[in-house]
Amino acid sequence: MPHIASLCANSHRLYTMADHKWTGSVKSLKGVILDMCGVLYDSGEGGGVPISGSVEAVKRLKESDLQLRFCTNETQATREKFVAKLQRMGFELSVSEVFSPAPAAVSILKERGLKPHLLVHDDLVPEFDSVDKMNPNCVVIGDAADKFSYKNLNDAFQVLIGMEKPVLFSLGRGRYYKETDGLKLDVGVYMKALETWQLTTCS
Amino acid sequence: MPHIASLCANSHRLYTMADHKWTGSVKSLKGVILDMCGVLYDSGEGGGVPISGSVEAVKRLKESDLQLRFCTNETQATREKFVAKLQRMGFELSVSEVFSPAPAAVSILKERGLKPHLLVHDDLVPEFDSVDKMNPNCVVIGDAADKFSYKNLNDAFQVLIGMEKPVLFSLGRGRYYKETDGLKLDVGVYMKALETWQLTTCS
Prior knowledge:
203 residues, Rossmann fold, four-stranded parallel sheet, three-stranded parallel sheet, inorganic diphosphate phosphatase activity (chains A, B), nucleus (chains A, B), cytoplasm (chains A, B)
């Protein structure tokens, strides 16, 4: 009984759905959750380009009686910046319709009374404005890109090793992704690096 | 039948051995292999300081009929630089008596006809002078310290992912160590990071 469809394929399938040529089983759908990068647009220089047909597909889904939400593992920018980029590409969407890792993490941090040491991209920091970061008792890492320096990783490590029960939140588990100038290591490998020191004591 | 003793404890035990007050079982020893950092000296500002008694202990071992060799996992400098530092501290030792990871790696690289992409400390690079590094077909990482940048890790990753059968040599597996300004992540966690992308394809 699939009431919600989560799409992470490509805009061709998306367009077909939006075209209202649905089979009986698809008619039972109440809503659609769309992945974004690689589904709605391809990342690249200047922020990327929409995938052919995707802007129109989103428009048709919005005009339908389906609930529509967007889900992304993007952690290099706030939702506001991210949505503004997609709007410039022609997509109809608003911040409240987009689900991304940082606001979910903020919600958990507040729920548990945790104060994070952040190792994230500069453009993501504003997502954590409402969170107390004095005397941190956990570490949050995102796709920090150039901020993944030896010094910053040591700083995060020193915060973790100073805790009785180290708590590390990773905003993703991806291992690598493609940019216009080649493949880049993603947050998942840095998460693994920061997990590794715990396997034994100093060796 | 221990014919060689490998010591990685501290200079007190070392001094006791050198003092010739050995039990019967210890008398069967033919040689001694000494760890260095944390056994002969403590690392720190200006290169570190000898541990009390260790200079004299090495002197006595040299005067004995025991074979004496030194073994280290040091990968931030060539053996020449490393030995010069120890000599300045007062230790009697020569380059040929010291076994460290980089020369062992060079030996394996030549034996297998491998050409490395290096992600190592600048001061270690001369150890690899005799190795062809054009069109690399493997990656060698050491304790690169500040050279563990986002860019350099991506470069090493791109070399690895471009190979049909990726080959990664790590000059150590240590997870962290202490310096005067705090704990530092060691090469082992970066090794783990570079291993991680292989667990699945792009995620």
